[in-house]
Amino acid sequence: MSSDPIGFTAHDHTHCVKSALAAAQAVCIQRGVQMTPVRLRTLEIMLEEHAAMGAYDVLARLNAEGLGSKPPVAYRALGFLVDQGFVHRIERLNAFIACAHPEDAHNPAFMICRSCGTVAEAQAQSGTFVQSAAQTGFQIEQTVIEAEGLCPSCQPQVQP
Fold first, then answer.
1. CB 96 within 8 A of CB 48
2. Are 87 and 43 in contact (CB under 8 A)?
3. If you count Cβ atoms within 10 Å of the first and of the last residue's Cβ in the chain, which end, N or C, has fewer?
4. In order of start, what are the domains of the chain with their CATH numbers?
5. SS3 92
């Protein structure tokens, strides 16, 4: 898995979306779970931008496309996508974001731009924390790191 954060850097976003959708569908086949049209469209909506979206934002898009108008439609689709590791929940924003590395087991770290709302995902490097937990006998099952700040585009440019 690449450790480069995706979201703040220029990249081939069309390829990014296509490869994430293909990886998710392959994982579903491997796991024997069904990627329904609503789940697939929800994931595609989440992949359109590297920004977190609330469940009601997703529901509005699904409703506009005739895929459902009741909140459980979005929550069920997002719940499935989170359970399968295709989408992450951003606690700080009470929102969701598509996983940048759906084919890999990983501990995500999120950098959230407080100005434009862009979110970049990177691999969490939590060695000290893991060591501390091991020393106390605590077994970590999952970690999520969320950092808020300014992305490169939103930072004031320093003039020489």
1. no
2. yes
3. C
4. 13-149 (1.10.10.10)
5. helix
Residue 60 CA from chain centroid, whole number: 19
As averages over each run of 10 residues, the pLDDT of the chain (160 residues) reads 50 74 91 95 88 92 92 94 93 88 76 88 76 86 85 75
| Segments in the chain forming alpha helices (H) | 13-31, 37-47, 55-64, 71-83, 127-136
Q: Which residue has the tokens 């569908």?
A: 25
C-alpha 148/C-alpha 57 separation (Å) is 21
Q: Which tokens sit at 1?
A: 């898995």
- Count of residues making up the chain: 160
SS3 110: strand
Percent helix, strand and coil across the chain, each to the nearest 5: 40, 20, 40
Q: CA 129, CA 105: separation in Å to the nearest integer?
A: 18
Under a CB-based contact definition with an 8 Å cutoff, are residues 23 and 102 in contact? yes
Entry pTM: 0.78
